[in-house]
Design brief:
With 402 residues, this protein is of the alpha/beta class. Helix content is 36%, strand content 19%. It is globular, with a radius of gyration of 21 Å.
Length: 402
């Protein structure tokens, strides 16, 4: 049996007036998804336990069968592992976004304009991160370049308990009440404030302004954690497994679970990613003997954060057309039995521009046993089936029937 697990990150949403009171899932033209949904087990699942923050690390860890309450140590260490960084026992990793703050006023009075600095390119970001490391790095802490706006700090003896605000939760707001504060937060505040002086008029940012793009003029620290440890996915499920994603966080979960992380050239983590490349990478993985392939696509989530309704619909359509359809057709042609599970990890409503903890729709298609599913795979139709899985980390049991 082959298993394809397809994660359109943040796909679930609310009904939107501009879409005729439909959600992006419902508005999207996704013929292959809906064709399979009509023959699938369909329901809803809660991937994020109550009391935990609805972040992608928690939700994807659950989908991969690891109880977040047991194994979640923060997203930054997972990203560090994906980046190939060596974490010592006393290291704390921090996510280091490079963000766009407004120009006016003192640092504390600035507005969070964009948590992704217009989805800055990795090449541009690398110059900025190197400038930060040269000015602020030392034997205790170092800056490391990740992808686009997502970067990492490793800090010997750092505080892994400090409760930072997530930058994508304060879009359009003054940062004053959300900055690190108090004695424990002072060192983080100083680092972030100093970053403004280094980045705001850096040549990379002046060139971005000249092109009409937002500057990446400050860092924002969040999601600290120490080195994670996950059980082996293969030992747990007896499946040779691979993960395909543009996002270091998802790659890191796979690497920590001893899955193979497959890189795809041109995979960006936004709506303009290499969908064809991800599909071919999944097909190649199955041809090479992988039995479980986990394909994560960040585009819908980024569109939700950026309040881009039409692009979110487009991302859902492209995932259906350019990833699901060709991989499904390959699996049919292979002559082997297979299952396909599709679900977002969490909702990212366009109205809120951040994640929520609400249940998400899921579907499981089996080539060997057709079910009476739903005509269209949407949040509403999935909820109407009455099937609800309260703990996402048990979903693998339903998929594998083990």
């Amino acid at each position: 049996m082959k298993y394809l697990v397809l994660i359109p990150d943040g796909m679930a949403d609310e009904k939107i007036e501009a879409l005729g009171n439909k959600t992006p899932m419902a508005a999207a033209d996704k013929p292959t998804t809906d064709m399979l949904a009509a023959k699938s087990i369909v329901g809803t699942v809660s991937n994020v336990p109550q009391g935990m923050v609805p972040e992608s690390d928690t939700a994807n860890m659950a989908i991969l069968s690891f109880d977040p309450k047991v194994y979640s140590k923060g997203r930054s260490p997972l990203e560090a592992m994906s980046m190939g960084l060596t974490m010592e026992p006393d290291h704390v990793a921090y996510r280091c976004n490079i963000v766009t703050l407004s120009d006016e006023g003192e640092y504390d009075e600035k507005i969070m304009l964009d948590h992704s600095a217009d989805e800055i390119t990795t090449a541009e970001a690398d110059e900025l991160i190197k400038a930060l490391d040269a000015a602020l790095g030392n034997d205790i802490l170092r800056f490391y370049t990740g992808v686009s706006y997502r970067h990492c700090i490793l800090w010997h003896g750092g505080n892994d308990k400090y409760n930072f605000m997530r930058p994508h939760d304060i879009l359009g707001q003054c940062i004053k009440d959300h900055l690190p504060h108090g004695e424990d937060g002072k060192v983080f505040y100083e680092l972030m404030r100093k970053s403004w002086d280094i980045l705001n008029h850096h040549p990379v940012n002046e060139a971005r302004r000249a092109r009409g793009l937002r500057p990446a003029n400050s860092i924002w620290l969040w999601s600290p954690g120490k080195k994670p440890a996950l059980p082996s996915f293969k030992e747990k499920w007896g499946l040779k497994a691979a993960v395909i994603s543009a996002v270091d966080l998802i790659k890191g979960i796979g690497i920590c679970a001893e899955m193979t992380s497959i890189d795809v050239e041109g995979a960006t983590g936004n709506v303009h990613t290499n969908y064809d490349g991800k599909a071919q990478a999944a097909i190649n993985a199955f041809k090479e003997g992988y039995e479980y392939v986990y394909v994560h696509v960040e585009g819908p989530d980024e569109c939700g954060h950026r309040a881009e309704t039409e692009n979110k619909v487009l991302a859902v359509e492209l995932i259906d057309k350019k990833i699901l359809k060709p991989v499904y057709e390959y699996l049919v042609s292979s002559g082997e039995d297979f299952k396909i599970m599709i679900l977002p990890d969490h909702p990212t409503p366009v109205r809120l521009r951040t994640h929520t903890i609400d249940p998400v729709p899921f579907m499981i298609y089996s080539s060997t046993e057709e079910k009476s599913g739903v005509a269209h795979f949407t949040e509403e139709s999935a909820g109407a089936t009455g099937l609800y899985v309260p703990s996402g980390y048990t979903l693998m049991e339903l998929l594998t029937e083990k």
